[in-house]
Amino acid sequence: MPEEKIMTLHPQGKKGVNISKAKYNQVREVVLQVIDSEQPISFTDMAHMASEILRDREFDGKPMWYVTTVKLDLEARKLIERIPKTSPHQLKLT
């Protein structure tokens, strides 16, 4: 049986990527958890924390790439947002 996939979205309407739904769900859970516990949090801090959690769970793949991809998808789905006029950009739940 083929692996179930999900097409990610991009907040600027660019083309998303087709990734494993299981990996997407795993990364989504971690990204939302980190942002929820630390908000507001810089993208860099969130990405490092989420990547460490995924590595500890023996995530198969490049955690930083997946974290970035899923973060953009969550922005496009309006589950998280960038806080305007922050540098480096800060994230929070919507």
List the helices and strands and how they pair.
Elements: E1 5-7, E2 18-20, H1 21-38, E3 41-42, H2 43-56, H3 63-76, E4 80-83, E5 90-93
Antiparallel strand pairs: 1-2, 3-5, 4-5
Helix pairs in contact: 1-2, 1-3, 2-3
Describe this structure in words.
The protein is α+β, with helices and mostly antiparallel strands. It has three helices and five strands, in the order ββαβααββ. It has helices spanning 21-38, 43-56, 63-76, and strands at 5-7, 18-20, 41-42, 80-83, 90-93. A hairpin with a 6-residue loop joins strand 4 (80-83) and strand 5. Helix 1 crosses helix 2 (43-56), helix 1 packs across helix 3 (63-76) and helix 2 (43-56) crosses helix 3 (63-76). The radius of gyration is 13 Å and the shape is globular. It starts with a strand and ends with a strand. The relative contact order is 0.21.
